Amino acid sequence: MIAFINDLYRRLTIENGLLLWLLMALFIGASLYLARDFKLDASADSLVLEGDQDLRYYRGVRARYGSDDFLFVTYTPREDLFSDAVLADLKALRDELAALERVKAVTSLLDVPLIESPPITFSDLSQELRTLEAGNVDREMARNELRTSPLYSELLLSRDGTTTALKVDLKRDERYISLLEARERLRELELRRPLEGDEAAELERVSREFREHNTRLQAQMQEDIARVRAILDGHRGAAEIHLGGVPMISADMVDFVDRDIQVFGAGVGLLLILLLAFFFKQPRWILVPMLVCAAVVIAMVGFIGLMDWRVTVVSSNFISLLLVITLSLTVHLIVRHQEYHAESDAPDQRRMLADTMRTKFAPSVYTSLTTMVAFGSFVVSDIRPVIDFGWMMVVGVALAFMMAFLLFPMILSRLRPGEAVLRRHDPTAAITHSLASLIQRHSTGTLLLYGLLLALGVAGITRLSVENRFIDYFKESTEISKGMLLIDRQLGGTTPLDVVLEPNKDFLDYLREEARYAEQQGGGAPPFGDEQESGLSGDSYWFNVFELETVGRVHNYLDQLPETGKVLSLATTMRMLTRLNQDQPLDNLTLAVMHKRLPQEVKASLFDPYLAADGNQVRFSIRVIDSDVNLQRDALLKKIRADLVDELGLEPEQVKLSGMLVLYNNVLQSLFGSQILTLVVVFLAISLMLFLLFRSLSLALIGIVPTVVAAGLILGLMGWLGIPLDIMTITIAAITIGIGVDNTIHYIHRMRDEIGRDSDYWTAVRRSHASVGRAIYYTSITVTLGFSILVLSNFIPSIHFGLLTGFAMIVALVANLTLLPLLLVRFRPFGRGG
């Protein structure tokens, strides 16, 4: 059976490949057609944990109190902010933004109600709203009020009075919300029990429609952001302007991903051409590998379009990875082919190709499988972009193997052998020969050195952290970084955090008793009073004098934390109402009257964002200073939760934390677990594959050592340099093992053949270094330089990923050419002979 398959493969690829050429052309054509469905995704929902319960609660809080779908425009004029010219320009900017189709409202210092410019009473506010735009206020008093107001200071105006902000609220997309709710409802049902046929079909339909609608929504958002920036550009002559907000970050991330894919692909492709020209110095050895690489990339992009997988910032480097992996496979084939060529006096192209594909098939199969296992280990992560990246690369490596073993012989079988390009004495041969001589002379010292390096790596690993500042993800030259830094320093912080307080247990028991009584009475009046008579303050848990004192204490506690910037809550509202009441204390009756008689637009600003409609839930809106170098998110969240219970006397069940800070922290805290789990999976899987390949436990254990050392050293280096784990860097160790062990397999496979010739281990080492050692050197240098292209990214984790993975590949190269042969000589797993 094996002989039949070998014969069929040789006839289809080497002897008569017309049918295969036709099939390949159809396959590439179909892939190009499917590539039109290739899509990007950089939405906030693409960077959260799978099945995160906090995500569900966060969406509920957004639905009740308002979403994060707003843009933040900072405006620092070159003249006095309250001069006629600047206010006129600010008004024009606001009106232009408000005229955009998808903008719901724009809030600026021009149109917010002022109560101390000059001071007014509650009755005055009920009759007339005083604003800067209306012209019925004193500007200097307005400047002072906006700078010192508990509501407006560091929200609309910086404390120094030089920078203001415009909040651009975007219209809520009801179709998106309905599809999201339908999908989440069916997913939750699926967790409880297997879905029936129509339910499963409904989930598939809703998920597909949600993805399609989200794609359209992202494209629309990018257009909207472009229009906003065009408007802002028209006003930059009068002021320094920056744009911020979650929608803007998502839109820019799509641009980053799109740019990275193009730059990485083009950069790596150009680099590979230069390296091939340097290593092999013949046009065919540039053209053939690049044709194979191009076919793999086209096929993979088409497959991603077919499967409707979305490329995120995590997977934006998949093209560059595929290129270096494909080239690595192809270079091993070239080197082996050229070895046969150099040994033959009358080279027969078809014979050399047949021998090359036969001898490299088994090690290439296992190197591809080990690389697939490394990327496949990402599916055990809880982070969706990392999971998708793993699946993409598993399929991509399989395509790379298939294309290399089809196109390489198909193309070369149509060409004459040409001249041999490998010489016995060249710089590469000198390097590999020197390494072989070095470890033979200093074997004990080499082992001691690796032991010391491994100890340093382990010590560094203990220093690893997952704390990341989101602002550090972007270069300082980007709009995201500039805007976040300005907002952090002058306008109260960037990262949203919500503290939500529920009623205590006794009140919840009261509500349940009230509901039971109403049900027994057939919907009659409840036993404990009537909301219409007592007003909101008499019927709610929080909107009364007693519990508002608790709200005030919680607000003051949150406000004094060094990590927090602007804090807004019902306590802020009470301070504003107290000023309206001529600084007199408010009783329950006054509260009820004020709540009832306030103008609706004022109530929407003072109550709706912080108090539930029934008064039984309050929300504290906090913005955290993300640029604070001492920020420890997890410690901060734990401290807030503990202090509200232990120091302020709330029940644990009353305290809920939500917001982007919580979701982002959940992702960060999962990184340690994901890192350990992926490493365990990849270590066990690759060890098993090495055992199956070589039928030797000792060879399996020896084979895994060099790449484990490389992965340990790179993680240790991250610890010593203070580089935290993030959604990109957690993949480095597994990728290092998966790609690094490829060279290990090629070396052991060749070493076994060389031992079979004369049973002399050191001689076998020198011959292996002179042959497969050169291929390992070529591929490792190619992979390293390929990863270095990632430094061109605007996304700092991608830069760290490229540099650290490239360095890990160099360490793996040196370990495979020094530590691996030393272990093979010391433990002699091949016995006396091959």
Automatic annotation (TrEMBL):
<dbReference type="GO" id="GO:0005886">
    <property type="term" value="C:plasma membrane"/>
</dbReference>
<keyword id="KW-0812">Transmembrane</keyword>
<feature type="transmembrane region" description="Helical">
    <location>
        <begin position="287"/>
        <end position="306"/>
    </location>
</feature>
<feature type="transmembrane region" description="Helical">
    <location>
        <begin position="261"/>
        <end position="280"/>
    </location>
</feature>
<feature type="transmembrane region" description="Helical">
    <location>
        <begin position="447"/>
        <end position="466"/>
    </location>
</feature>
<keyword id="KW-1003">Cell membrane</keyword>
<dbReference type="GO" id="GO:0022857">
    <property type="term" value="F:transmembrane transporter activity"/>
</dbReference>
<feature type="transmembrane region" description="Helical">
    <location>
        <begin position="701"/>
        <end position="721"/>
    </location>
</feature>
<feature type="transmembrane region" description="Helical">
    <location>
        <begin position="672"/>
        <end position="694"/>
    </location>
</feature>
<protein>
    <submittedName>
        <fullName>Transporter</fullName>
    </submittedName>
</protein>
<keyword id="KW-1133">Transmembrane helix</keyword>
<feature type="domain" description="SSD">
    <location>
        <begin position="699"/>
        <end position="826"/>
    </location>
</feature>
<dbReference type="InterPro" id="IPR004869">
    <property type="entry name" value="MMPL_dom"/>
</dbReference>
<feature type="transmembrane region" description="Helical">
    <location>
        <begin position="802"/>
        <end position="825"/>
    </location>
</feature>
<keyword id="KW-0472">Membrane</keyword>
<feature type="transmembrane region" description="Helical">
    <location>
        <begin position="727"/>
        <end position="748"/>
    </location>
</feature>
<feature type="transmembrane region" description="Helical">
    <location>
        <begin position="361"/>
        <end position="383"/>
    </location>
</feature>
<feature type="transmembrane region" description="Helical">
    <location>
        <begin position="775"/>
        <end position="796"/>
    </location>
</feature>
<dbReference type="Pfam" id="PF03176">
    <property type="entry name" value="MMPL"/>
</dbReference>
<dbReference type="InterPro" id="IPR000731">
    <property type="entry name" value="SSD"/>
</dbReference>
<feature type="transmembrane region" description="Helical">
    <location>
        <begin position="318"/>
        <end position="335"/>
    </location>
</feature>
<dbReference type="InterPro" id="IPR001036">
    <property type="entry name" value="Acrflvin-R"/>
</dbReference>
<feature type="transmembrane region" description="Helical">
    <location>
        <begin position="18"/>
        <end position="35"/>
    </location>
</feature>
<feature type="transmembrane region" description="Helical">
    <location>
        <begin position="389"/>
        <end position="408"/>
    </location>
</feature>
<dbReference type="InterPro" id="IPR050545">
    <property type="entry name" value="Mycobact_MmpL"/>
</dbReference>
